[in-house]
Design brief:
By secondary structure, this protein is of the alpha+beta class. It is 40% helix and 11% strand. It has 16 helices and 11 strands.
Length: 400
Protein backbone atom coordinates (compact mmCIF):
# COMPACT_ATOMS: atom_id res chain seq x y z
CA UNK A 1 0.00 0.00 0.00
CA UNK A 2 3.00 2.31 0.51
CA UNK A 3 3.70 2.25 -3.24
CA UNK A 4 0.03 2.79 -4.08
CA UNK A 5 -0.42 5.89 -1.95
CA UNK A 6 2.71 7.64 -0.69
CA UNK A 7 4.73 7.17 -3.85
CA UNK A 8 2.06 7.50 -6.54
CA UNK A 9 1.26 11.18 -6.05
CA UNK A 10 -1.83 10.46 -3.94
CA UNK A 11 -2.60 12.84 -1.08
CA UNK A 12 -0.43 11.59 1.80
CA UNK A 13 -3.01 12.75 4.35
CA UNK A 14 -5.67 10.46 2.93
CA UNK A 15 -6.49 7.31 4.93
CA UNK A 16 -5.56 4.05 3.20
CA UNK A 17 -7.13 0.61 3.32
CA UNK A 18 -4.79 -2.29 4.10
CA UNK A 19 -6.11 -5.81 3.28
CA UNK A 20 -6.04 -8.21 6.21
CA UNK A 21 -3.46 -10.45 4.53
CA UNK A 22 -1.06 -7.48 4.39
CA UNK A 23 -1.40 -6.51 8.04
CA UNK A 24 1.45 -7.66 10.26
CA UNK A 25 0.70 -9.10 13.68
CA UNK A 26 0.60 -5.83 15.58
CA UNK A 27 -1.67 -4.52 18.30
CA UNK A 28 -3.64 -1.92 16.35
CA UNK A 29 -5.67 -0.98 19.40
CA UNK A 30 -2.50 -0.17 21.33
CA UNK A 31 -1.14 1.92 18.45
CA UNK A 32 -4.39 3.85 18.34
CA UNK A 33 -4.36 4.42 22.10
CA UNK A 34 -0.77 5.67 21.88
CA UNK A 35 -1.76 8.22 19.28
CA UNK A 36 0.35 6.57 16.59
CA UNK A 37 -2.51 5.84 14.20
CA UNK A 38 -6.15 6.70 13.59
CA UNK A 39 -8.61 4.08 12.38
CA UNK A 40 -11.73 4.89 10.39
CA UNK A 41 -14.19 2.69 8.52
CA UNK A 42 -16.59 3.04 5.64
CA UNK A 43 -18.70 0.97 3.28
CA UNK A 44 -17.21 -0.38 0.05
CA UNK A 45 -19.06 -0.32 -3.27
CA UNK A 46 -20.25 -3.85 -2.53
CA UNK A 47 -21.59 -2.85 0.85
CA UNK A 48 -18.84 -4.44 2.94
CA UNK A 49 -17.17 -2.67 5.86
CA UNK A 50 -13.54 -1.66 5.32
CA UNK A 51 -11.09 -0.17 7.81
CA UNK A 52 -8.72 2.67 6.90
CA UNK A 53 -5.55 3.69 8.69
CA UNK A 54 -3.68 6.99 9.04
CA UNK A 55 -0.21 7.41 10.58
CA UNK A 56 -0.32 10.42 12.90
CA UNK A 57 3.40 10.76 13.67
CA UNK A 58 6.32 11.24 11.34
CA UNK A 59 8.56 8.24 10.88
CA UNK A 60 10.70 6.45 8.35
CA UNK A 61 9.42 3.73 6.08
CA UNK A 62 11.20 0.39 6.48
CA UNK A 63 11.92 -0.91 2.96
CA UNK A 64 12.41 -4.42 4.37
CA UNK A 65 8.70 -4.49 5.22
CA UNK A 66 7.60 -3.61 1.69
CA UNK A 67 6.32 -6.46 -0.47
CA UNK A 68 7.14 -6.57 -4.19
CA UNK A 69 4.20 -6.53 -6.59
CA UNK A 70 3.16 -10.05 -7.57
CA UNK A 71 4.39 -10.99 -11.01
CA UNK A 72 5.90 -13.73 -13.09
CA UNK A 73 9.20 -15.30 -12.12
CA UNK A 74 12.17 -13.72 -13.82
CA UNK A 75 14.08 -15.64 -16.47
CA UNK A 76 17.57 -14.95 -17.80
CA UNK A 77 16.30 -12.19 -20.12
CA UNK A 78 14.19 -10.30 -17.60
CA UNK A 79 16.78 -10.75 -14.83
CA UNK A 80 19.32 -9.03 -17.08
CA UNK A 81 16.82 -6.24 -17.77
CA UNK A 82 16.24 -5.84 -14.05
CA UNK A 83 19.98 -5.47 -13.43
CA UNK A 84 20.13 -2.55 -15.89
CA UNK A 85 17.99 -0.47 -13.51
CA UNK A 86 20.97 -0.17 -11.17
CA UNK A 87 22.73 1.86 -13.86
CA UNK A 88 20.03 4.55 -14.03
CA UNK A 89 20.47 8.12 -12.83
CA UNK A 90 19.17 11.57 -13.77
CA UNK A 91 20.84 14.69 -15.10
CA UNK A 92 21.73 17.09 -12.33
CA UNK A 93 18.87 19.48 -11.61
CA UNK A 94 16.39 17.66 -13.84
CA UNK A 95 12.73 17.24 -12.99
CA UNK A 96 11.59 14.09 -11.26
CA UNK A 97 8.92 12.64 -8.97
CA UNK A 98 9.05 11.50 -5.37
CA UNK A 99 8.49 7.90 -6.46
CA UNK A 100 11.35 7.98 -8.95
CA UNK A 101 13.66 9.62 -6.41
CA UNK A 102 12.92 6.86 -3.91
CA UNK A 103 13.71 4.31 -6.61
CA UNK A 104 17.08 5.99 -7.19
CA UNK A 105 17.78 5.93 -3.45
CA UNK A 106 16.82 2.28 -2.90
CA UNK A 107 17.61 0.54 -6.21
CA UNK A 108 20.99 -0.86 -5.20
CA UNK A 109 19.66 -2.69 -2.16
CA UNK A 110 15.96 -3.21 -2.96
CA UNK A 111 15.90 -3.66 -6.72
CA UNK A 112 13.21 -6.39 -6.54
CA UNK A 113 10.71 -3.74 -5.38
CA UNK A 114 11.01 -1.90 -8.68
CA UNK A 115 10.73 -4.55 -11.38
CA UNK A 116 7.61 -6.59 -12.20
CA UNK A 117 6.67 -8.85 -15.10
CA UNK A 118 2.88 -8.68 -14.91
CA UNK A 119 0.71 -11.77 -14.67
CA UNK A 120 -1.75 -10.62 -17.33
CA UNK A 121 0.42 -10.43 -20.44
CA UNK A 122 4.06 -10.46 -19.38
CA UNK A 123 4.59 -6.71 -19.75
CA UNK A 124 7.53 -5.30 -17.80
CA UNK A 125 6.76 -2.53 -15.30
CA UNK A 126 9.46 -0.38 -13.69
CA UNK A 127 9.80 3.17 -12.38
CA UNK A 128 11.14 4.05 -15.84
CA UNK A 129 8.02 2.74 -17.63
CA UNK A 130 5.87 4.79 -15.25
CA UNK A 131 8.05 7.91 -15.42
CA UNK A 132 6.40 10.95 -17.00
CA UNK A 133 7.25 11.25 -20.68
CA UNK A 134 8.55 14.82 -20.25
CA UNK A 135 11.16 13.60 -17.76
CA UNK A 136 12.46 10.56 -19.65
CA UNK A 137 14.98 12.48 -21.81
CA UNK A 138 16.74 13.37 -18.54
CA UNK A 139 17.48 9.70 -17.77
CA UNK A 140 21.14 8.69 -17.85
CA UNK A 141 22.60 5.18 -18.18
CA UNK A 142 26.02 4.81 -16.57
CA UNK A 143 25.99 8.59 -16.34
CA UNK A 144 25.71 8.95 -20.14
CA UNK A 145 23.15 10.76 -22.32
CA UNK A 146 20.34 8.55 -23.65
CA UNK A 147 18.10 8.32 -26.71
CA UNK A 148 14.82 6.47 -27.19
CA UNK A 149 13.30 4.36 -29.95
CA UNK A 150 9.57 3.66 -30.11
CA UNK A 151 7.04 2.30 -32.61
CA UNK A 152 4.38 4.65 -33.97
CA UNK A 153 0.80 3.39 -33.39
CA UNK A 154 1.94 0.00 -32.14
CA UNK A 155 -1.56 -1.14 -31.11
CA UNK A 156 -3.09 -0.58 -34.59
CA UNK A 157 -0.10 -2.37 -36.15
CA UNK A 158 -0.53 -5.34 -33.84
CA UNK A 159 -4.24 -5.62 -34.61
CA UNK A 160 -3.47 -5.67 -38.34
CA UNK A 161 -0.94 -8.47 -37.83
CA UNK A 162 -3.33 -10.48 -35.65
CA UNK A 163 -6.25 -10.14 -38.05
CA UNK A 164 -4.14 -11.20 -41.04
CA UNK A 165 -2.91 -14.29 -39.21
CA UNK A 166 -6.43 -15.32 -38.12
CA UNK A 167 -8.67 -14.49 -41.09
CA UNK A 168 -6.31 -13.74 -43.95
CA UNK A 169 -7.10 -10.91 -46.35
CA UNK A 170 -9.16 -8.13 -44.76
CA UNK A 171 -9.67 -4.41 -45.22
CA UNK A 172 -8.18 -3.33 -41.89
CA UNK A 173 -4.88 -5.18 -42.42
CA UNK A 174 -4.67 -3.73 -45.91
CA UNK A 175 -4.93 -0.22 -44.46
CA UNK A 176 -2.07 -1.04 -42.10
CA UNK A 177 0.10 -2.74 -44.71
CA UNK A 178 -0.30 0.23 -47.07
CA UNK A 179 0.89 2.60 -44.36
CA UNK A 180 -2.35 4.55 -44.24
CA UNK A 181 -3.36 6.71 -41.27
CA UNK A 182 -5.54 4.12 -39.57
CA UNK A 183 -7.71 6.70 -37.80
CA UNK A 184 -8.47 8.54 -41.05
CA UNK A 185 -9.30 5.21 -42.71
CA UNK A 186 -11.69 4.36 -39.88
CA UNK A 187 -13.19 7.85 -40.06
CA UNK A 188 -13.83 7.47 -43.78
CA UNK A 189 -15.20 3.93 -43.57
CA UNK A 190 -17.52 4.60 -40.63
CA UNK A 191 -18.44 8.10 -41.89
CA UNK A 192 -17.40 9.78 -38.63
CA UNK A 193 -17.13 13.52 -38.06
CA UNK A 194 -13.46 13.69 -37.15
CA UNK A 195 -10.21 11.76 -36.72
CA UNK A 196 -10.60 12.05 -32.94
CA UNK A 197 -14.00 10.36 -33.16
CA UNK A 198 -12.39 7.61 -35.21
CA UNK A 199 -9.68 7.20 -32.59
CA UNK A 200 -12.33 6.81 -29.91
CA UNK A 201 -14.06 4.15 -31.99
CA UNK A 202 -10.75 2.37 -32.43
CA UNK A 203 -10.25 2.14 -28.67
CA UNK A 204 -13.77 0.81 -28.34
CA UNK A 205 -12.86 -1.89 -30.84
CA UNK A 206 -9.84 -2.83 -28.74
CA UNK A 207 -11.13 -2.56 -25.20
CA UNK A 208 -14.93 -2.47 -25.03
CA UNK A 209 -17.44 -5.30 -25.01
CA UNK A 210 -18.46 -6.94 -28.29
CA UNK A 211 -20.80 -4.50 -30.04
CA UNK A 212 -23.03 -5.23 -33.04
CA UNK A 213 -23.46 -1.49 -33.61
CA UNK A 214 -19.72 -1.15 -34.19
CA UNK A 215 -19.86 -4.03 -36.62
CA UNK A 216 -22.68 -2.31 -38.51
CA UNK A 217 -20.63 0.91 -38.72
CA UNK A 218 -18.02 -1.03 -40.68
CA UNK A 219 -20.49 -2.84 -42.90
CA UNK A 220 -20.17 -6.07 -40.92
CA UNK A 221 -16.75 -6.58 -42.47
CA UNK A 222 -15.05 -9.88 -41.70
CA UNK A 223 -12.44 -8.25 -39.47
CA UNK A 224 -14.88 -6.48 -37.13
CA UNK A 225 -17.05 -9.60 -36.88
CA UNK A 226 -13.95 -11.61 -35.94
CA UNK A 227 -13.12 -9.05 -33.23
CA UNK A 228 -16.65 -9.28 -31.77
CA UNK A 229 -16.56 -13.08 -31.83
CA UNK A 230 -13.10 -13.19 -30.24
CA UNK A 231 -14.27 -10.98 -27.38
CA UNK A 232 -17.37 -13.11 -26.79
CA UNK A 233 -15.93 -16.53 -26.01
CA UNK A 234 -13.89 -18.00 -23.15
CA UNK A 235 -10.14 -18.10 -23.69
CA UNK A 236 -8.14 -20.30 -21.33
CA UNK A 237 -4.85 -18.48 -21.95
CA UNK A 238 -6.28 -15.13 -20.82
CA UNK A 239 -6.26 -15.02 -16.99
CA UNK A 240 -9.15 -12.51 -17.02
CA UNK A 241 -11.29 -14.29 -19.61
CA UNK A 242 -13.55 -16.14 -17.18
CA UNK A 243 -15.03 -12.90 -15.84
CA UNK A 244 -14.08 -10.49 -18.62
CA UNK A 245 -14.19 -12.18 -22.00
CA UNK A 246 -14.03 -8.78 -23.70
CA UNK A 247 -10.45 -8.48 -22.42
CA UNK A 248 -9.38 -11.28 -24.79
CA UNK A 249 -8.28 -8.85 -27.49
CA UNK A 250 -6.40 -6.61 -25.07
CA UNK A 251 -4.63 -9.72 -23.77
CA UNK A 252 -3.74 -10.89 -27.28
CA UNK A 253 -2.48 -7.45 -28.30
CA UNK A 254 -0.28 -7.11 -25.23
CA UNK A 255 1.10 -10.67 -25.36
CA UNK A 256 1.87 -10.23 -29.07
CA UNK A 257 3.62 -6.95 -28.28
CA UNK A 258 5.65 -8.64 -25.54
CA UNK A 259 6.73 -11.49 -27.86
CA UNK A 260 8.01 -9.01 -30.44
CA UNK A 261 9.68 -6.81 -27.84
CA UNK A 262 11.37 -9.83 -26.26
CA UNK A 263 13.08 -10.39 -29.60
CA UNK A 264 14.20 -6.77 -29.53
CA UNK A 265 15.40 -7.03 -25.93
CA UNK A 266 17.34 -10.23 -26.62
CA UNK A 267 18.88 -8.70 -29.72
CA UNK A 268 20.09 -5.73 -27.70
CA UNK A 269 21.50 -7.98 -24.97
CA UNK A 270 23.32 -10.11 -27.57
CA UNK A 271 24.83 -6.89 -28.97
CA UNK A 272 25.85 -5.87 -25.43
CA UNK A 273 23.65 -2.78 -25.55
CA UNK A 274 22.31 -1.70 -22.16
CA UNK A 275 18.67 -0.58 -22.40
CA UNK A 276 15.56 0.32 -20.42
CA UNK A 277 12.11 -0.86 -21.47
CA UNK A 278 8.95 1.26 -21.73
CA UNK A 279 6.58 -1.29 -23.32
CA UNK A 280 7.03 -0.74 -27.10
CA UNK A 281 9.90 1.71 -26.50
CA UNK A 282 13.52 1.23 -25.51
CA UNK A 283 15.91 3.78 -24.02
CA UNK A 284 19.60 3.29 -24.82
CA UNK A 285 22.82 5.24 -24.52
CA UNK A 286 23.01 7.89 -27.23
CA UNK A 287 26.20 6.34 -28.55
CA UNK A 288 24.34 3.02 -29.07
CA UNK A 289 21.33 4.54 -30.81
CA UNK A 290 22.41 3.63 -34.35
CA UNK A 291 23.11 -0.03 -33.59
CA UNK A 292 19.95 -0.32 -31.49
CA UNK A 293 17.84 1.17 -34.27
CA UNK A 294 19.19 -1.38 -36.78
CA UNK A 295 18.38 -4.28 -34.43
CA UNK A 296 14.91 -2.91 -33.64
CA UNK A 297 14.13 -2.24 -37.32
CA UNK A 298 15.26 -5.69 -38.47
CA UNK A 299 12.95 -7.37 -35.97
CA UNK A 300 9.98 -5.14 -36.84
CA UNK A 301 10.53 -5.92 -40.52
CA UNK A 302 10.04 -9.61 -39.74
CA UNK A 303 6.58 -8.94 -38.29
CA UNK A 304 5.15 -5.98 -40.21
CA UNK A 305 4.95 -5.02 -43.88
CA UNK A 306 4.82 -1.39 -42.81
CA UNK A 307 6.01 0.28 -39.62
CA UNK A 308 7.55 3.53 -38.42
CA UNK A 309 10.27 3.59 -35.79
CA UNK A 310 10.72 6.94 -34.05
CA UNK A 311 14.08 8.05 -32.76
CA UNK A 312 14.25 10.67 -30.03
CA UNK A 313 17.50 12.15 -28.88
CA UNK A 314 18.20 14.79 -26.26
CA UNK A 315 15.28 17.05 -25.38
CA UNK A 316 15.25 20.48 -23.72
CA UNK A 317 15.67 20.39 -19.95
CA UNK A 318 12.36 20.07 -18.13
CA UNK A 319 12.12 21.82 -14.78
CA UNK A 320 10.63 20.19 -11.73
CA UNK A 321 6.85 20.05 -11.60
CA UNK A 322 5.60 21.04 -8.19
CA UNK A 323 4.35 18.00 -6.22
CA UNK A 324 3.19 17.53 -2.64
CA UNK A 325 6.20 16.82 -0.44
CA UNK A 326 5.99 13.75 1.85
CA UNK A 327 5.14 14.70 5.38
CA UNK A 328 3.65 13.23 8.54
CA UNK A 329 0.12 12.00 8.02
CA UNK A 330 -2.67 13.80 9.81
CA UNK A 331 -6.19 12.57 10.34
CA UNK A 332 -8.53 13.66 7.57
CA UNK A 333 -11.71 12.43 5.99
CA UNK A 334 -11.13 11.39 2.37
CA UNK A 335 -12.99 13.50 -0.19
CA UNK A 336 -15.57 11.30 -1.88
CA UNK A 337 -15.18 13.24 -5.08
CA UNK A 338 -11.39 13.11 -5.32
CA UNK A 339 -10.47 11.47 -8.65
CA UNK A 340 -8.78 8.12 -8.15
CA UNK A 341 -8.65 4.65 -9.58
CA UNK A 342 -7.59 1.25 -8.18
CA UNK A 343 -4.15 0.09 -9.34
CA UNK A 344 -5.61 -3.17 -10.68
CA UNK A 345 -7.28 -1.26 -13.54
CA UNK A 346 -5.36 -1.89 -16.77
CA UNK A 347 -7.63 -1.12 -19.76
CA UNK A 348 -8.87 2.21 -21.09
CA UNK A 349 -12.47 1.03 -20.78
CA UNK A 350 -11.98 0.23 -17.07
CA UNK A 351 -10.44 3.65 -16.48
CA UNK A 352 -13.39 5.28 -18.24
CA UNK A 353 -15.91 3.35 -16.12
CA UNK A 354 -14.11 4.34 -12.91
CA UNK A 355 -14.00 7.98 -14.00
CA UNK A 356 -17.73 7.97 -14.75
CA UNK A 357 -18.45 6.50 -11.30
CA UNK A 358 -16.35 9.25 -9.72
CA UNK A 359 -18.09 11.93 -11.80
CA UNK A 360 -21.51 10.67 -10.76
CA UNK A 361 -20.59 11.35 -7.11
CA UNK A 362 -19.68 14.97 -7.72
CA UNK A 363 -21.79 18.10 -7.94
CA UNK A 364 -19.92 19.17 -11.03
CA UNK A 365 -21.86 19.54 -14.28
CA UNK A 366 -18.76 20.03 -16.42
CA UNK A 367 -17.80 16.48 -17.38
CA UNK A 368 -15.00 17.58 -19.70
CA UNK A 369 -13.28 19.62 -16.98
CA UNK A 370 -13.71 16.81 -14.44
CA UNK A 371 -12.26 14.17 -16.78
CA UNK A 372 -9.34 16.41 -17.68
CA UNK A 373 -8.48 16.87 -13.99
CA UNK A 374 -9.05 13.16 -13.34
CA UNK A 375 -6.64 12.17 -16.12
CA UNK A 376 -4.05 14.67 -14.88
CA UNK A 377 -4.23 13.33 -11.31
CA UNK A 378 -3.86 9.74 -12.53
CA UNK A 379 -1.27 10.41 -15.21
CA UNK A 380 1.32 8.04 -13.69
CA UNK A 381 -1.16 5.19 -13.40
CA UNK A 382 -2.49 5.69 -16.93
CA UNK A 383 1.02 5.76 -18.40
CA UNK A 384 1.99 2.64 -16.46
CA UNK A 385 -0.95 0.90 -18.13
CA UNK A 386 0.32 2.03 -21.51
CA UNK A 387 -2.37 4.69 -21.96
CA UNK A 388 -1.57 8.36 -22.46
CA UNK A 389 -3.90 10.90 -20.76
CA UNK A 390 -4.55 12.38 -24.20
CA UNK A 391 -5.70 9.01 -25.57
CA UNK A 392 -7.86 8.50 -22.50
CA UNK A 393 -9.56 11.87 -23.01
CA UNK A 394 -10.02 11.11 -26.70
CA UNK A 395 -11.68 7.84 -25.77
CA UNK A 396 -13.97 9.76 -23.41
CA UNK A 397 -14.94 12.09 -26.23
CA UNK A 398 -13.22 15.12 -24.71
CA UNK A 399 -10.17 17.14 -25.70
CA UNK A 400 -7.08 17.71 -23.60
Amino acid sequence: MFWRSRLRNVDDKEPIHIPKDQLKEVNLTALKAAGEIAITKKKTQRGHEAFYYVALKAGEIEPDLLTPTKGRELNRLTAEMQSYLKRVSLKEGSGSTYYFNVFLALKNKYLNLFFTVDLFSGRVHTPVSGFQRIYRPNILIDGEQTASLDVTTMQPLLLGKILESHIGVNEYSQWINEGKDIYLSIQDKAKLESRDKAKKRFFEILFSYADKRLAAMFGNANWINWVNDFKSRPMAENPHSLKKQHSNLAWLLQTTEVKIMREVWQGLIDAEIVFLSVHDEVIVKAKDEGRAKTIFSNILAKHFKYYKLNSKGEAPQISQIEEPKPKANTLSVPEETKPRAPQRIRTIEQFHSEAMRAFSKTLSKDKTKFLTCWAKDLKDILLDAGISPKDFLTYCGTSA
